[in-house]
Amino acid sequence: MDGVKFLSILVILANAVTVFCAVLILASKLGYFKRSWSRVEKLIHKHAVKLVLLVSVSATLGSLYLSEIRAFPPCKLCWFQRIFMYPIPILALTSIYRKTKDLFQYLIPLSSIGMLIAGYHYYLQLNPNPYAPCGDIGFSVSCSENFFTHFGYITIPWMAFSAFVVISLSMFPILCSSRRLSGRDSRFYQKRLLSSFFGFCHLLLGFYLEIGNWNLEFWLRRD
Known about the structure:
Layout: H1 3-29, H2 34-69, H3 76-85, H4 87-98, H5 104-126, H6 156-176, H7 183-222
């Protein structure tokens, strides 16, 4: 199997799991499947660091495969995404070795910023803008350049976006159950974090649905 298609299949699986978790969270907030989400949340909390390590290593090796083996030159925004992705495997390995409990403090900022950059990069591919601050400059390829599109919507920045989303969502259960918070402050901050988490999943689900709508229109125009 072609390496790019294999990576695309992994992205589809990650997107499917993310959408499933987002729907489960929304349903639990409405009073449905609370026990199911509680079990899933405990499972994510238990294996969060290992999941982050698996996803970040896959994203790192995948990006190197695309640029060094398939010879797809990374653009400026690709490099920015790599800056925020490449430290994550090292931090996750260190956390596993040292058995630390505060990994979320470092990963959430990295993955959130990387997710925003990847989302903006994907937007530029869907809506090329000659005035965007990422055109053909020196030896850098244009950020709107698209080397491939699998399954109607998966491109390189979407792969990065999906990886950052999984990493961010994996850290939220740990953040909400942090032992550093105690008493009333703990309940207050946990409610605020859960509200933020709920809002984030809501926006994320809407974004996925919008991408799905664009994907459907793409294939209808193609046919």
